[in-house]
């Protein structure tokens, strides 16, 4: 049973992304975007097609809803970890989608020092803290969209929490310190991912699980096709649901093993107040009849891992 103050994760059939995102938008209790500056963080880590990166249709659907909500401006900010960001955005269709929607594109790699906010290392696993893009810190609202993937380079999963790594500088533009080298070499990598989210806001996160990778990842792996989209105002709840979905399809040993809320990234993010602290504090809501059986199995997996 979920608590009365449970965070809700909505699940809907993904056959029509535009209709699905529109329905999700109506269900969620979102703050008004009228006259607001909105920053969008999508998933363009590499120059590979969906489900490695955000599907152009998903990006288009989100821009459409944000625009219809009266946003004053929309900015897509991105840093690719496995490719040249500008080229990735061009090749994956993101630049064209943004142009049609009247959205600005900011390649975070090219930001000057003033474009970054230094997050101090106090009580973090980062040796000297990290640099977060001011774009996301200063926006009136941040909208995130991520993919359903495992992560073979130490992250275990690449969902909404991991996706925010792309909002952090690879290197310090002042002295060249490599934050990503530190992250990927650290035994605390997954906790460090959570700590990024402790400093970066997010009004709503949308997980496109039309397809996904149940092994491998983040740029290639064993493809699965859940054909659903998940959304929540709570990134911890969303990722816990995403992990339950991966377990439904039989995923890697690291992701299958143990309590979901004991996994490093989930546990650390919950500890930092990013979202709920247990499976009992989240509620899965199927928005169409076809998603109900899948949601029931995800709920069972969450409960059994509690």
TrEMBL record:
Residues 38-243 form the DUF362 domain. It comes from the Archaea. This is DUF362 domain-containing protein.
